[in-house]
Each structure stands twice: as C-alpha cells, then as structure tokens.
C-alpha cells in the first residue's frame, strides 16, 4: 500500500492533543465590556443581550469584583448618559458617567486595566459618532471633541484610550492632546478597522446609541473591503496607535489575519454584541452547546491572529476555562 501520513497519531489522547495545541485561550486575553448608567439601584439586563447588564455606579462594584475574581485583567467601560446634546458634551464632562465609573473602578481595583471607549454616539442626541453640521458628520470638528473626551478619560484614570469613532486622523488628534495634557504614557488602542456592521444591533439597544437619521456608512467601513482595511490600519500605525482593533470579529477573521501579518502591533478583535446574542439565543433554545461554541469561537479568533479579545462572553468563558484542564 502507498505510504500515507498518520495525522491521528497526535490526536490519540487528551494528553497529546494538549501538547500539540497551537493556540490557547485564557482569561488574560479578555477585555470585558461594562455599561455604566446614571441613577441608582440599577442592575438591568439588556433585553437583546442576555447576561449583560446596565449598572448604576452604586451597583457596579459587584460586577467588577466578579470580573477580577475570575482572573479577567481588563475591562472596557461604556457610559450611558442621561443627557445628550448635539455635540456630545457629556462625553467629556469631568463628572460624566464614564469618568465617574473609571474613577470608581480604578479606586477599587487599581490593578484592573481599565480601557475607555472614546466615541460620541452615546452622548449625542443624533446618535452619530461625531459632530453633525447640516446633516453631515463633519470630520475635523469632531476630532477636537474626541480628543477632549480622551483627555477627560485619561484624567479620570483610564489606563488606555480606545477610540471607536472612525473619523480620519483621530489617533493624531488624540495623541497630541494626551501628550499636551501630560499623558504621554497613556496608550491608544485604535479601533482601526471598524466595519459598518449589522452585528452592532444589540449594542445600540444597550448603549442607546442608534443614529436618529441615516447610518454610519460615511465613516465606518464597507464590509466588502479588505485592502481598505490595511490602509486604515496603516494610517493609525503611522499616527502612533499602540494597538490595533478589528471589529467585528467572527465575520472578519480574514481581516484579523491580514492585519496580524502586515503589522507588528498587538491586535485586538471585538467579538461584538450581535455575535454574542446569536450564540445566546441559539443556546437558550437548546440548539447549540453554548460552552463548546463559545470556546471554539474564541479559539478561532486567537488562531486568526488576535492577541486580545473584547467579548461579552468573557465571564462565562473564564469560568469554563477554569475547569477544562
Ligand atoms: C461606538 C461603539 C459601537 C460598538 C462599540 N463602540 C457601536 C456602533 O458603532 O454603533 C459596538 C459594540 C458591539 O456591537 O458589541 N461607536
């Protein structure tokens, strides 16, 4: 008989499979998104995201304590403000919801790595990620407000600034203002490649951030494009980003891989709300094995080239990883 390869030799037992495993998922890879809302006594599940809650600041500690206990090292904070206006001024208020949340979380857990999402859509009454003039999202005017927002977040104690607004030049603008304000050591995780994706639907429920008119396609990327993603990422690298993000994750694993291969910066993937909610919904119906599917997805994102994963599954996955050895 013709000689053939026996690939199954290295699959015969759990021991050898673990020894030859090429990629690993660990709680250290996770960045867990947390939503802080104004008011008190609030711990409210987001209807389209089972297992994800809004917390007012007086309830937030319980959530963050749990994250820390599970061995997750980082959170990204999103603020859901009470008051919105045309230019998103509550985004950079010193006592804004996210600034207060950052201060509180850093006070309680100085070692927890706190990222701040820098965008305006939760804070503007029109729901766009930048400043609107005559029905258009104006780029350069938005940069000023975004940079101001980033500085206020750094001042509140954010360890890293994660701008998700997709205006051109946001890394330059934010880097400059951070440096001027004395935060040259605060890194920027750029949402370098962010697609205009329908997978953000549940997040917009959670963050009350749907655009009131139009959509985000003049600033977020066309899902059909891959080369453009590399141009976006190249600009951000040149502008001084410290890490790059690709978002969403699952439907864009080719982009994660290409960004990984082209650039040497750490790469993060955002396993977004719609991806999360699809898994949750199918699991609730008993159609899939949630634990197996989630761990497979997260492993897939690592295999595609992500160093870090922003995921709403982080707490569950951290629990499951504790007993899969
Ligand atoms: C804000 C922002 C969005 C997400 C993170 N930051 C939504 C958007 O662009 O509408 C999406 C996260 C998710 O879907 O989990 N610009």
Key structural traits:
ALAD, globular, magnesium, heme biosynthesis, ten-stranded mixed sheet, alpha/beta, two-stranded antiparallel ribbon, TIM Barrel, binds ligand PBG
What is the helix fraction of residues, given as a range? 25-40%
Q: Supply the number of structural domains.
A: 1
Query: Which hetero compounds are present in the coordinates?
Result: ligand PBG
Helix count, DSSP H or I runs of 4 or more residues: 11
Which homologous superfamily in CATH is the superfamily?
Aldolase class I
Tally the beta strands. Answer: 12
Q: State the CATH class.
A: Alpha Beta
- Global structural class: alpha/beta
| DSSP strand content | 15-25%
Describe the largest sheet.
10 strands, mixed
| H/E topology pattern | HEEEHEHEEEHEHEHHEHEHHEH
- Cα-based radius of gyration, to the nearest Å: 20 Å
Cα shape: globular
Low-confidence stretches: none
Q: What is the overall pLDDT average?
A: 96
What are the SSEs and their pairings?
Blueprint: H1 14-19, E1 30-37, E2 43-45, E3 53-56, H2 57-69, E4 74-80, H3 97-108, E5 113-118, E6 131-133, E7 136-138, H4 139-156, E8 160-163, H5 170-180, E9 189-194, H6 201-207, H7 227-239, E10 243-247, H8 253-262, E11 267-271, H9 273-284, H10 290-304, E12 308-311, H11 314-322
Parallel strand pairs: 1-3, 1-4, 1-12, 4-5, 5-8, 9-10, 10-11, 11-12
Antiparallel strand pairs: 2-3, 6-7
The structure holds ligand PBG.
């Amino acid at each position: 008989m013709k000689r053939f390869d026996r690939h199954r030799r290295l699959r015969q037992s759990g021991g050898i499979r673990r020894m030859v495993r090429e990629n690993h998922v660990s709680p250290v890879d996770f960045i867990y998104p947390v939503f802080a809302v104004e008011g008190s006594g609030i711990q409210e599940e987001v209807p389209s995201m089972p297992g994800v809650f809004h917390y007012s600041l007086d309830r937030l500690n319980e959530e963050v304590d749990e994250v820390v206990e599970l061995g997750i090292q980082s959170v990204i904070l999103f603020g859901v403000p009470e008051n919105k206006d045309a230019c998103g001024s509550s985004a950079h208020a010193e006592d804004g919801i996210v600034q207060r949340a950052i201060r509180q979380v850093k006070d309680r857990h100085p070692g927890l790595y706190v990222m701040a999402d820098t965008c305006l859509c939760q804070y503007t009454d029109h729901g766009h990620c930048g400043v609107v003039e005559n029905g258009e999202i104006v780029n350069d005017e938005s940069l000023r407000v975004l940079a101001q927002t980033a500085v206020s977040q750094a001042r509140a104690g954010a360890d890293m600034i994660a701008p998700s607004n997709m205006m051109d030049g946001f890394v330059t603008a934010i880097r400059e203002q951070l440096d001027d304000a004395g935060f040259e050591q605060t890194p920027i995780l750029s949402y370098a490649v962010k697609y205009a994706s329908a997978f953000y639907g549940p997040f917009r429920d959670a963050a009350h951030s749907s655009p009131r008119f139009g959509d985000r396609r003049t600033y977020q990327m066309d899902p059909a494009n891959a080369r453009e993603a590399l141009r976006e990422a190249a600009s951000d690298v040149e502008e001084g980003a410290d890490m790059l993000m690709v978002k969403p994750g699952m439907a864009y694993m080719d982009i994660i891989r290409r960004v990984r291969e082209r650039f040497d910066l750490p790469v993060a993937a955002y396993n977004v709300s719609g991806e999360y909610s699809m898994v949750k919904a199918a699991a609730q119906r008993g159609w899939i094995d949630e634990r197996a599917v989630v761990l497979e997805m997260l492993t897939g994102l690592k295999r595609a080239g992500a160093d870090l994963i922003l995921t709403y599954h982080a707490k569950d996955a951290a629990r499951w990883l504790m007993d899969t050895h």
